[in-house]
Design a protein that fits this description.
By secondary structure, the protein is of the alpha+beta class. It is built from 18 helices and 22 strands. β1 and β2 form a beta hairpin. The radius of gyration is 22 Å and the shape is globular.
C-alpha cells in the first residue's frame, strides 16, 4: 500500500493565528480541547525559551534561525510543518527533558513532544506559540547483555533501530515506515510486520523510563509501578514524557525477509475480499509468521480504483514462489503488477517512506468491526459513494482505505504481563481495523475531505451496529482529531486511565499544558 498511498497514522488540525495577535485553537479542533492561547501566553513562552537558551545554548532553536525552519520541514504532514512554536528544544538526556518540563510548567507555557513527527495533526508533536521538545538526541540503541531486550531512546526513528539491530540479526516490534518515531507508535499501540507472531509494540515493552509531571524520573515494569506500566500500553501522552523504552527482542535473519505485493483492478474486489476474510479466519492462525496490508486506492490520474495487497514473511522463500498462506491472493487473475522478492527489513521500511514524502496535507480516520465478508463489501461501497462527489476535483488527491485483521494471536498477546489499556483482550472473533486516509495539496480542499470521511465513519458505524458487528475500539495511531480513541477503550479502561493519570499527574499538567493528541 505504501508505494501507492501513505503510511498509516493519524491526523488533526492544529493552532491557527487569530485576530489581534492572539493564538487560539481552530474551531475544527476536536470537542473538549478548547485551550485559549493569548498574547500573554506567547510572552510567557518566549520567556521560557529565553531561559532554555541561556541554560542550554544551541540546543534551542528560535524562529529567526535557519535551523528552526529546517526542523519544521522534517515533519511529515504539511499541517505539522506549518505550525510555528516559540522555540524548539533538543534535550540530550532525561534530566534535560525534565528541566524543559519544569520550565514549561513554571512559565505556564504549553508544549508538545516530538519523537518522529509522523503524526498528521499540528497539535500532536508540534505546537503554535509554545515549546516543542524534540527528542531526537535521545537516540540510544543498546543491546542488553542477554540479547533478550534492547534499550531504545524515545527519539529514535524505526529505520535507525532496524539498521542497528540488523548487525545482530535481531528485531523489535516496531513501525513499518522508516521515519516513524519509536515514542508515538509504541504509546498508541503499535501494529508491526511481526504482530501476528509477537503482538503489538505496546505488548513488547519490558520497561518504560518516564519523566512525570513533578520532573521525577520513574521506571514502570510489570513488577514496579504496575499501574503506570499498564496505562502506558496504549495510553498515549497522558502519563508523562517517556524518554526510554526497553523492548523485547527476537531473532531474525535480515537477509531472509520476504516481501510481496500485488496490484489488481478493483473489478477483482470480490475475490480479493473473500481471500482477505479467509486469511483473517484461518490463514493468520495457521501461519503466525504472516501479515497482510489490504488496501483500495483511487488513482486520480487514471480515474480508476485498484486493490493493493502487501504481504511480508520473515523467512527465506524460493525465487518465484511465495508462502502458501498467500495462495488465494496470488491466484486472483488479471494482476496489474506482482512483486515477490527478498529484501532487508530496513529497505522495506525505507521503500514505504520514499513513497510518502513530507509536505502534503494528510487525513486519517478509523473504525473497528468484527470480521465479516458482507459487511466489508458494504463498508467499501460507502467509501466509494463518499468519494464520488470529490474525486477528480482535488489537487494531488490520493484516497486510500486499508483493512487489517486484528488476529486472535494479537489479541491473546495483549493479556501478557497484566494486560494493556486497549480493551481488546476478551474478543471471541478476529476484528478488522479499517483506515480511510487521504493526502492532497491545497488547504481549500480540507472541508470537502473532512465531510466525506466523517460521513464514512458515521455510515460505517451505523451499518455495523445494524448487523451487530460494530466495535467501539479506535486505534489511536489512526484516529482523526474528531474521534475519541480513549473512550473507545471502554468505560472501565478509560476510567482506570484517568485514575492513573491523576495519580502521577494530580494537577493535570499533561492534560492542559500538553494539549495535543488524545487526552483522557
Amino acid at each position: 500500500m505504501k508505494c501507492l498511498a501513505q503510511s498509516l497514522f493519524l491526523v488533526a488540525v492544529g493552532l491557527v493565528p487569530a485576530a489581534k495577535g492572539e493564538l487560539q485553537w481552530s474551531s475544527l479542533d476536536r470537542p473538549g480541547q478548547s485551550v485559549l492561547q493569548s498574547a500573554s501566553m506567547v510572552e510567557r513562552c518566549r520567556g521560557a525559551c529565553a531561559t532554555l537558551r541561556e541554560k542550554y545554548g544551541d540546543q534551542l532553536l528560535l524562529p529567526d534561525e535557519v535551523a528552526y525552519e529546517e526542523e519544521l520541514s522534517k515533519y511529515w504532514s504539511l499541517q505539522q510543518s506549518q505550525t510555528r512554536p516559540s522555540c524548539i528544544f533538543f534535550p540530550n538526556d532525561r534530566d534535560e527533558a525534565s528541566s524543559a518540563l519544569l520550565i514549561s510548567r513554571q512559565a505556564e507555557c504549553p508544549f508538545a513532544a516530538k519523537s518522529g513527527g509522523h503524526a498528521a495533526f499540528a497539535g500532536s508533536s508540534n505546537i503554535a506559540g509554545g515549546i516543542t521538545i524534540n527528542l531526537a538526541n535521545l537516540n540510544e540503541i543498546t543491546i542488553n547483555r542477554d540479547r533478550n531486550t534492547v534499550t531504545i531512546g524515545a527519539g529514535n526513528k524505526w529505520v535507525n533501530v532496524y539498521r542497528r539491530l540488523e548487525e545482530e540479526n535481531l528485531i523489535v516490534i516496531g513501525g513499518r515506515v522508516a521515519p516513524i518515531g519509536v515514542g508515538g507508535l509504541t504509546l498508541g499501540g503499535g501494529i508491526s510486520y511481526f504482530s501476528n507472531t509477537y503482538g503489538w509494540a505496546c505488548d513488547n515493552v519490558a520497561s518504560y523510563e518516564i519523566v512525570t509531571a513533578s520532573g521525577i524520573v520513574v521506571v514502570a515494569t510489570p513488577d514496579a509501578n504496575q499501574d503506570l506500566y499498564w496505562a502506558l500500553r496504549g495510553g498515549g501522552n497522558n502519563l508523562g514524557l517517556v524518554t526510554k523504552f526497553e523492548l523485547f527482542s527476537y531473532p531474525l535473519d535480515h537477509s531472509a525477509m520476504w516481501f510481496g505485493k500485488m496490484m489488481h483492478p478493483a473489478a477483482q474486489n470480490a475475490s480479493l475480499l473473500q481471500a482477505f476474510v479467509d486469511y483473517g479466519r484461518r490463514g493468520a492462525a495457521e501461519d503466525l509468521k504472516s501479515t497482510i496490508l489490504f488496501s483500495f486506492v483511487y488513482l486520480q490520474s487514471q480515474d480508476q480504483y485498484v486493490v493493493v495487497t502487501e504481504v511480508e514473511y520473515p523467512e527465506k522463500v524460493a525465487d518465484g514462489t511465495h508462502p502458501a498462506v498467500y495462495d488465494a491472493f496470488f491466484d486472483v487473475p488479471d494482476a496489474l503488477r506482482v512483486t515477490s522478492e527478498t529484501k532487508k527489513l530496513v529497505d522495506i521500511a525505507q521503500e514505504h517512506s520514499d513513497a510518502n514524502p513530507n509536505g502534503l496535507r494528510q487525513s486519517y480516520w478509523t473504525a473497528t468491526v468484527k470480521l465479516d465478508l458482507a459487511l466489508l463489501h458494504e463498508i467499501l461501497a460507502i467509501w466509494y459513494a463518499e468519494l464520488e462527489p470529490i474525486k477528480g476535483k482535488i489537487a494531488g488527491f490520493v484516497p486510500v482505505i486499508t483493512f487489517q485483521v486484528v488476529t486472535m494471536s494479537m489479541l491473546e498477546r495483549m493479556k501478557l504481563n497484566g494486560g494493556n489499556a486497549l480493551g481488546l483482550q476478551d474478543e471471541e472473533v478476529p476484528l478488522v481495523s479499517i483506515v480511510p486516509s487521504a493526502m492532497w495539496t491545497d488547504a481549500k480542499d480540507d472541508a470537502a475531505i473532512r465531510t466525506a470521511y466523517s460521513n464514512w465513519v458515521e455510515k460505517t458505524t451505523a451499518k455495523a451496529k445494524s448487523r451487530g458487528l460494530d466495535h467501539p475500539y479506535l486505534y489511536m495511531n489512526y484516529a482523526s482529531e474528531y474521534q475519541d480513541p480513549v473512550e473507545g477503550y471502554g468505560k472501565e479502561n478509560s476510567k482506570r486511565l484517568r485514575e492513573v493519570a491523576k495519580k502521577y499527574d494530580p494537577e493535570g499538567f499533561f492534560q492542559t499544558l500538553q494539549p495535543g493528541y488524545f487526552k483522557v
